[in-house]
Amino acid sequence: MSTSLLEVNDLEVTFRRSAGPGRKAASVPAVRGVSFQLEAGTTLGIAGESGSGKSTIARTLMGINTPSGGTMNLNGEDVTGLKGRRLAEYRQTMQMIFQDPYDSLDPRMTVSQTLLEAIKLRKTNKPVSPIAEVHELLDKVGLSRSFASRKPRELSGGQRQRVSIARALSVDPRLILCDEAVSALDVSVRAQVLNLLKDLQEELGLAYLFISHDLSTLRFMADYVGIMYLGKIVEIGTRDEIFDRPQHPYTRALLSAVPEPVVIDRTVRLPRVRLTGEPPSSTNPPSGCSFHPRCPLAQDVCRTVSPAARPTASGQVAACHFADPELVVAES
Amino acid sequence: MTALLEVSDLVVDFPTSQDGVFHAVDGVSFTVGAGERVGIVGESGSGKSLTSQALMRLVPSPGTVSQGTVLFEGEDVMSFSTKKLQTWRGSQTAMVFQDPMSSLNPLMRIGRQITESLQVHLGLSKAESRTRAIELLQKVGIPDAESRLSDFPGAFSGGMRQRVCIAIATACSPKLIIADEPTTALDVTVQAQVLDLLDSMATELDTGVILISHDLGVISSFCDRILVMYAGRIVEQGTAEQIVGDPQHPYTKALLASILKLSEPIPRRLRSISGAPPTAGHRPSGCSFAARCASAIETCLTIDPALVPAENATDAENGEPGQLVACGVAAPAAFALGEEATAA
To answer: Which residues in chain B are closer than 8 Å to A258, comparing Cβ atoms?
Structure first.
């Protein structure tokens, strides 16, 4: 079972929050025991609301944040807490694309300077002709070669995100972490970039860890989907398991809250699963199941016992005392 | 019947670097009835927010409203004196913005921010306004309303802050609320709560609402009527059912096709709209969508189509504005009434 491209076990990330006006110093458990595997050439989507810890996972994988527990294996090699040169090497295998291409590109560098910088940092497979490679990368992301001499301010949002993708591809990664990579784009442009990411996956055999709060985008992109709530994965399974047969009450509520541009008969409008309240602060997560204060199914046990993640009859793994009540699986 | 709000031929200009002007909003006309929920949908730069700012007379400098009238209950908003404008903004109309943190004063207690307008606009006493503020906070679903009056905005979560903003907006029972991307910064489960709240406030007070969003899902689930904006113009308008169920303009169709829906099978590829909207100051001659349009014909490049009744319009007879579309291919009258480009 160690053939996965990426294997994350029991990852924990805790931040220290310093004291400020009107608040005490505290430790904030942002990620609380997250495990998942990602196979080469596939996409794992991570959904969740703001503050659920999804971006922290990506940032920890990239070595930006330091884990306080758990392990991360890439190609079977333990890469937890790497530093310096080893970290730089490891980042060749794994690249990241951020939400805001306005912030992640240097405004003073032309597109070709940005890409050349990345190409020259490559440790293996030293470039023979860097300029030719720049052109090749632009071709790959669907930008004409005339873009090489432009600066970020001369590009539209979609074009900038294409440049970010080209930069990520410059080191021949196996895995790209996409953190809300299309969230800042207008819908018509977003569709172009999503299609591009899918084409590149097919062509280059890339794996994606695709983080998004937008469930319909995840449904399009992902083979597997994990749903996060307050630092934990509460449900994880194949795309169909999560979208067609959600078991966790939070997943169900999340899916039913998405407004869709479809004709609805307002007279027979179905009552949605409406959650009351809001995600609690991660500084002080609720006892038992973190979701219990907002959960329509919550019972006494939910307030005291944190539910373990367990397989359900419909296939996926869910962390809920009452998901799939027919089946009782002994904890192994 | 006079509409609550009647906007005609509104134009907002921005100077361009070449000493010219650019019509960021270019001849927009629409009405909002009492209790009606009108949605304006469009991508960034389409002029949707600017339209709402213009009718509140809040266009940011160096922009100016160079043309058009805005009638509020038959009164010309453009001719209001500064004093009248202030009274009108606070008591008759209200705005809710995307980022509740930046529209609340971080250094002023929530209670004071609500009671301020009650005292100024309704002339309530300190004690009366405090009682009313508690009621308002309870109404928008904030627990322990009384004790929370003395909290600063920083003590509230994003969704709670937006509730406070809605409480402030509805404090003086305005006749019109303009909500500009009110849920864009919120999580989807909280978004649903805030939209429900806005909906029930509008129903209770018979308030007209203009909801501005880039999200056609949000717009169509909330609004009675939808205006679709592209490059500073309304390119299509109709009821939510018409726009979502039977769109006529190629842009609306393409927009709907490029949105992923959970209720539909997963497409192998997403349909996208090639190219990008025209940038500021580079409006093409003819239809501004022509360059990206799959159904464009040669005439589209020379004639700027007018907004005319759609060919399928059915409900024009009951006096309500039916579905309107600015596309000569969908409705030939749009070309007949359109403006031919002067030799470029």
So the answer is: 188, 217, 262
B65, B104: one domain: yes
A127 class by beta-carbon count within 10 Å (0-12 exposed, 13-18 middle, 19+ buried) = middle
Q: Is A327 exposed, middle or buried (0-12, 13-18, 19+ CB in 10 A)?
A: exposed
- ipTM of this model? 0.81
Confidence band, pLDDT 50/70/90 cuts, at residue B26: very high
User: Are the beta carbons of A162 and A141 closer than 8 angstroms?
Assistant: yes
The answer to whether the CB of A256 falls within 8 A of the CB of A271 is no
Q: SS3 for A223?
A: coil
Best B151, B188, B191 member to test A by mutation, with max A CBs in 10 Å, is B188
Q: Tell me, what DSSP letter sits at residue B158?
A: H
Predicted confidence at residue A23, as pLDDT, reads 67
In sequence order, the 6+-apart residues with CB closer than 8 A to the CB of A13 are A29, A30, A31, A53, A56, A57, A60, A65, A66, A67, A68
**pLDDT tens by residue, A215-262:** 999 999 999 999 999 999 999 999 999 999 999 999 999 998 888 888
Mutation to test the B interface, candidates A99, A150, A185, A187, most B Cβ within 10 Å:
A187
Q: Which residues of B, range 197-226, sit inside 8 Å of A by Cβ?
A: 214-222
Q: What is the pLDDT of residue A272?
A: 63
Confirm or reject contact between A50 and chain B (CB < 8 A). Answer: yes
pLDDT at A22: 62
User: In terms of residue numbers, what domain contains A297?
Assistant: 232-259+270-318
* CA–CA gap between residue A103 and residue A126 (Å, rounded): 28
| φ and ψ at residue A175, rounded to 5 degrees | -135, 135
Contact A189 B272 (CB under 8 A): yes
Q: Which of A158, A260, A281 sits opposite B263 (nearest CB)?
A: A260
Q: Are residues A197 and A250 in the same domain?
A: no
pTM score, whole prediction:
0.87
Do A70 and A152 lie in one domain? The reply is yes
Is the pLDDT at A271 greater than 70? The verdict is no
Q: Which residue, among B140, B190, B191, B192, has the nearest Cα to B165 in the 3D structure?
A: B140
Give CA–CA dist A175/A211, Å, rounded.
Answer: 13
Interhelix angle A130-140/A111-121, rounded to 10 degrees, is 110
- Give the count of domains, chain A: 2
A13/A26 Cα distance (integer angstroms): 14
Claim to verify: residue A204 and residue A295 sit in the same structural domain: no
Listing DSSP states for A229-274 in one string gives ETTEEEEEEEHHHHHHS--SHHHHHHHHT---SS---GGGPPPP-P
pLDDT over 90, % of chain A:
64
A258 at interface of B, judged by CB pairs closer than 8 A: yes
Beta carbons of A192 and B221 less than 8 Å apart: no
- Per-residue pLDDT tens over the stretch B296-336: 999 999 999 999 999 876 554 555 568 999 999 999 999 98
For the segment A204-223, what is each residue's pLDDT rounded down to a tens digit?
999 999 999 999 999 999 99
Task: Tell me what pLDDT residue A70 has.
Answer: 96
* Shortest Cα–Cα distance, B210 to chain A (Å): 18
A217 CA to centre of own chain = 12
The closest of B179, B228, B182 to B37, measured between CA atoms, is B179
Per-residue pLDDT, A332: 32
Question: What SS3 class is residue B303?
Answer: strand
- The enclosing domain of B203 has a CATH number of 3.40.50.300
Give the model's pLDDT for residue A328: 42
Q: Residue window 143-202, chain B: list those with CB within 8 Å of chain A.
A: 152, 154-155, 157-160, 187-193, 195-196
